[in-house]
Write a structure and sequence with these properties.
heterodimer, A: mainly alpha, about 80% helix, about 0% strand, globular, B: about 0% strand, rod-shaped
Chain lengths: ~525, ~35
């Protein structure tokens, strides 16, 4: 057993002990699926961050930055961050107000249609399943690289730990362990980023070293290194914007993000959690991305660029920091997988098998175990393809759900049939294009990305079918019901606190701009 | 271009928080107005 293994084993054991302790509080259906709807702001922020940022953050996204797509990824993350305030205010509050257990249930209730509930459940399970696989493969790759143990063994051990946490403690356990894990990997990431940049004499010197080397001089430029994504700098910027919108949609409505709002103790918690998540997400992603680029100063010839942080942990950091880094990366992965696993169980149990509610916790537990076995088999028999799979999951949610989610709140004209066929068209078009391009190895022009085509198809079909069908009084009433603010949300003191919180966080964009200017754009322009 | 991107990203975050703030403020103003009546 090497020193890195100690941290990984300890992290798993502590996570399981913590969830065992939390499981005593899990008694009702609400506790198991939506953490009793009692979560305070801190837990929602922690869970939003933890469920979004998995092992892939340190492997797939960092690999792109290391190779030369830094600015594209940075643009993507910057746009993604804005999904938090927009999603919380324009969707999350209405979602929580509807008192449902899953987002699919919300769609079904809003459009008075069991069919759209089933369709959204199918699309969400597919999207979460592929995303889950990419995270599990990421965890397996990380553990194998760090410990030297067999990949299959690592996947089995990690999935057993994850399944244990979700089965015994449900959403309550996931929410609390997620927050603890998010806190841990955020702090560790900051420490590692500072240490690595200081090892080159500070961020400015690290940028100067990159600029002085003709092989790495382009890495921090706006267009990046040609060929990593596209050959043209503008196409790379457009890629960042398109995928930023795609993943912003995931943050806005995606089951592993918006469902966190179902757990909030009130709507004020939903709103207050969003700006904090925006700031943490934006700064953390910048640190992880630019640190991955800095590693080029020590080694710009890594064979497998997804190992950039693993290589840095083993070669640039002292053992203690290496242990912290790998433990943080593992916890980032575990926290995402626990969320996805609990949501898949919630969706299958509540949206497909709506029998007696008393049996639902056990149904959920059985589904979790079954899903884990399927994921295990898939992860073992298929080679890791982190980037392709994770972007496929995001595209499916953005194309199938985003236009329907916006329409569910703000459109008076969209009918249940319009929403259903729009969702179907968005899902099928993006899924088939992604599948075709992935299998055939075809690269479409950036403007014809599957995500763009999928969203356009969704909107077009939704508008046309809605125009051809009649809106029922029941549907109109269901929409109006969303705008009835519960008495519990009308406390003037709470309203004042929420507005004050939002006012403070208006400065978050200024903070992000200053950080980007001071630690990237200006030093890069000075030294290039 | 790098400076424009940095300003764009910071600006976009600010704009999204401001849009959210004014939307929710409008709703809260209606609530407090109704409660005062």
């Amino acid at each position: 057993m090497n020193v890195y293994m100690v941290g990984i084993v300890l992290a798993m054991v502590i996570s399981m002990l913590l969830s065992t302790f939390i499981s005593r509080k899990v008694k009702t259906l609400n506790d198991f699926y939506v953490a009793g709807r009692q979560a305070p702001t801190g837990l929602i922020v922690g869970s939003l961050i933890a469920s979004m940022l998995g092992t892939n953050f340190y492997m797939a996204d960092s690999a792109l930055c290391y190779e030369g797509a830094f600015t594209s990824v940075l643009i993507m993350f910057g746009i993604v961050a804005t999904g938090y305030p927009l999603g919380a205010v324009f969707f999350g509050r209405y979602l929580r107000r509807s008192q449902v257990l899953t987002i699919s249930e919300f769609f079904g209730k809003r459009f008075c249609s069991p069919q759209i509930r089933k369709l959204s459940a199918i699309t969400s399970v597919i999207a979460m399943f592929v995303y889950l696989i990419s995270f599990v493969q990421g965890i397996g790759t990380l553990m194998t690289s760090v410990t030297g143990f067999d990949y299959n063994l690592c996947v089995i051990v990690a999935l057993s730990c994850i399944t244990f946490i979700v089965v015994i403690a449900g959403a309550t356990g996931v929410l609390i362990t997620d927050t603890v894990m998010a806190l841990f990997f955020t702090v560790v990431t900051v420490i590692i980023a500072i240490f690595i940049s200081n090892s080159y004499g500070g961020g400015g010197s690290a940028i100067q070293m990159l600029s002085d080397n003709k092989d790495t001089a382009q890495l921090l430029s706006y267009g990046g290194r040609p060929g990593v994504l596209y050959d043209n700098g503008y196409e790379n910027v457009i890629w960042g914007i398109i995928y930023g919108v795609v993943w912003m949609s995931v943050v806005y409505v995606g089951p592993w993000q918006a469902s966190r709002y179902l757990m909030a103790k009130d709507e004020h918690t939903v709103v207050r959690s969003a700006p904090g998540a925006t700031l943490v997400f934006a700064l953390l992603s910048f640190e992880v991305c630019i640190t991955a680029v800095f590693v080029n100063n020590s080694n710009s010839m890594l064979e497998d660029s997804s190992q950039v942080y693993i290589w840095a942990g083993m070669h640039l950091l002292p053992a203690v920091l290496g242990v912290l880094l790998f433990t943080g990366m593992l916890l980032a992965g575990i926290s995402s997988v626990t969320t996805l696993l609990s949501l898949i169980a919630a969706s299958i149990t509540n949206d497909f098998c709506t029998r007696t509610k008393q049996g639902s916790i056990w149904q959920g537990r059985i589904v979790i175990i079954f899903t884990s076995i399927v994921v295990l088999l898939y992860a073992v028999f298929n080679p890791p393809a982190l980037n392709f799979i994770q972007h496929m999951g995001g595209a499916v949610i953005a194309c199938a759900w985003m236009p329907v989610a916006v329409a569910s709140v703000f459109s008076k004209r969209v009918t249940k049939k319009g929403a259903f066929w729009g969702m179907f068209a968005g899902f099928m078009s993006s899924f088939l294009i992604k599948l075709f391009t992935g299998i055939a190895g075809v690269i479409l022009p950036v403007y014809f990305d599957a995500s763009i085509i999928g969203m356009i198809c969704n909107v077009l079909v939704m508008v046309v079918v809605s125009a051809l069908t009649q809106l029922t009084e029941e549907e109109a009433a269901a929409r109006l019901e969303l705008f009835v603010i519960p008495a519990s949300e009308r406390d003037v003191n709470e309203i004042g606190k929420t507005l004050k919180c939002m006012k403070w966080f208006m400065w978050s964009g200024v903070v992000v701009a200053i950080v980007l200017l001071a630690f990237w754009a200006i030093p890069y322009l000075l030294f290039s | 271009m790098e400076i424009i991107i940095a300003l764009f990203l910071g600006g976009w975050i600010t704009v999204s928080v401001i849009i959210s703030f004014f939307y929710i403020k409008r709703e809260y103003t209606i609530i407090t107005g109704e409660d005062n009546k």
